[in-house]
Structures are given as C-alpha cells and as structure tokens.
Amino acid sequence: MIAFGIMTLTPDSEISYLTEIAKSAKTFEMECFQFIPSQINPHTQRVYGKKFDPKSNQWVDDEFPIPSILYDRCFYGDDEHSKQCLPIVSWLKSRNDITFLGYGLPNKLELYESLKDTVLAPYLPPTQAVSGSDIIFKELETKEKIIIKPINGSQGHGIYYIKKNDKTFHVKTEKQKQIISRIFPNKVKLLKWLKPLITSKQYLLQPYLELFNQELQPFDIRILLQKNEQGNWGERGRGIRIGSTGGILSNLSAGGTATTFTEWLAAIPPKAADYICSELDYILGKLPQLLEDQFLPLFEIGIDIGIAKNGSIWILDLNSKPGRKVVLQTSPELKETLYHAPLFYAKHLYGTEKHERKSIYEKTLSH
C-alpha cells in the first residue's frame, strides 16, 4: 500500500474534502494519513496524526512514519505556528525519499517578477512593492485609484482600494462580508492610518482596474487546472464569481456568489464571447509550462481572470493550493473527479522512475 499523506495547519482544515479523498484511497491501493507538520517528532521522524480507517470511514489517531507522497494543503499566515511549520515543510521538500504532489508557488510579487518578461506580460497588472508610503502617494497623483494587497495574501484578506479626491482620500476594504468605507480629510490623516498597516506586513501596489459588471458588482473568472493520471495538465472547470454591489472582492469567502461560465458567456455579445474564449485558451496554454520552467513542479493551479469595462483581460491571481467551491457549485457533477484527482496523480508519481524524480529533488535543493 502506498502511504499518502495530507498536510494541513489545523486538524479540521478542509476536513470534508480530505475525507472524500480518503474514502477512495483504498481503491487506489493507498493508505491515507492526515497530519500537521509540527506533529513530526524530530528525533524519531515519526508522526502523531490521523489515519483513515476505511472500515469505519473515520479518521483515527495514530503514529506512523512520514508518508512517501505528500499533498500540501497548508495555508500559511503571519502567526507563530505558520512560522514554526514553514521550515519543517522546506526540510520535507529537500528529502529524496518524499515526493510532493505540488511544490507550491512563491508570493505574488515574485510571481509577477517571474512572468513580466514572458509572453503573458500584457495580461499582468503593473505591480510594485510598497516599500514606503511615498510610493502610494506618488501613484495616487498619476492614477487617482489604486489597490494595495499583501504579497502573501489569500481569499481577499487585507486588500484596500484607495482613491484620491480633490482634497480627501477614500479607502475601502471588505471584512467579514461587509464593505468598510472611510474618508480621510487630508494626507496627514491617511498617512497616520497607512503607516502601521504597511509596516506590519509586505504589500504590493497595482492600479485599480474597473472589473465590475453592469450592476457594479466586482466579478472574475475562476479556472481550475490539474494534472491527470498521465501527469498532463488539463482544465477541470471554470465559473464566474460575483461580489457585492460597490464592493472590491468577488471571493466566495467574502460573501460572493458563483454562476456558470456558460450562462455568463451567453449573456454577452457573440464577438466579445469569442474574443474572451480565444484569450483564455491562449493564457491556459502557456501558463502551466511557464510556471514549471521557473519554479518547482505543481499539481494544480487556481487562476483568477478579470475582465475590465474596456474589454481588457487580466491575470489577477495564481494559486497553487486552490479551493474547489466555484467549480463544485457550478459543476456539481465533477465532485468525484475532483476527489479522485490527487490520488490519480499520486499514483502516477509513485510509478515514475526514481531517476526521473531525482531532478525534482535537485531543483528543490537549489531553491
């Protein structure tokens, strides 16, 4: 039996998804384990985690060796536990007896730097690091509207829209599914609010793009790519995420809703629909290879595409640990496919000759 391990930062993270994977593991001749990186005993190199029992269909506490194939579903934050787990995962990636389904992507700023000189450059919003408040005020002088976001952010957390009016400044964000809006009467007041924010974590700055529909709801296209049982990239599904009127986020975690891509496409002029589909095909045809040429091998990619009022198409975000909500809500018939995908690809990796995998490990060490 192949030992298939799933790593999370908390025991209940994505538990329904992980359980569905585990229920099918036996038919793939696999044993399924779940653990937190900090549960590895550094002396014995054994893990105190959970093993899935196919007879009771339950996770049970267990102690076991580190599984030979790992599916990393850890979402790191700025907390101490994340900082504790990161070096452990780096150590696991350096071991030549362990294979990861996917080795992850760097932060948003590094991703931009790696893609800005490729054929996909026209689809990337101009992006720069927020090294100080001066950069923000300089951009506001020329663009009037900007977005700042954490370089390690996910699910829309910590994104701020800033607009310069004649004398005042308008700041907008979304927290706990609520739009929070504030007017600062002058630059001094904005600076007082801004400084603690940009010194607490690293931010990037982009121009504000008019990415909303006729109802002034922000929306984007979420596309899920995964590798199949032969190790080849393919699209699993795509859907439209729609946010609140007047908001800045379309994320489902921020209160957004999902609709099918087909339904959305049918509501726009045929010429525009053909153009969008052609552009999406081009992006999806180039992106996986470009990423794997520059970084470590991946298993899945979540791609967020924005379409501005003027018809321009933008790659808004790339995620190596994507969620499945949009695809499951818009194409529920894909449930089994999505639950089986990690197992199929794990089986493929396990069957790959050791010498073929060696180059992956060497690349891991070089990073």
Automatic annotation (TrEMBL):
Record's protein name: ATP-grasp domain-containing protein
Molecular-function GO term, any one: ATP binding
Pfam hit, one: ATPgrasp_YheCD
Source organism of this protein record: Neobacillus mesonae
Domain of life: Bacteria
Lineage of the organism: Bacteria, Bacillati, Bacillota, Bacilli, Bacillales
InterPro entries: ATP_grasp_subdomain_1, YheC/D
